[in-house]
Amino acid sequence: MAELITLNQNIEFRHAYNRGKSRSDPALITYAVKNRAGVCRYGITVSKKTGCAVERNRCRRIIRAAYSSLAGECSGAWDIVFVARFRTKNLKSTDIEPVMRRQLKELGVIA
Known about the structure:
Elements: E1 5-6, H1 10-19, E2 21-24, E3 28-34, E4 41-45, H2 53-70, E5 78-84, H3 93-107
Parallel strand pairs: 1-4, 4-5
Antiparallel strand pairs: 2-3, 3-5
């Protein structure tokens, strides 16, 4: 499996929020924008409103696991930002994966 490359800089996240297309679901919000890096990169954000640090980290792990199973299907060079919602912490990665797949298809990241 290919190495997963993450977004690290605040400006990269803001670019996805401001210029990218988005899809939302009660469990997850996804932003996607084309990049010039030549690879798919992803970032995850979780608000403090979601819960304590343990719950926020669980949300990150769930989203990371779901994305790792879909990362090989990404076509082109995209910056993808996943935003966890309050409901995310009660789900499993197998519950998030179909939601994520549908959103990435609608955004054109997955063919």
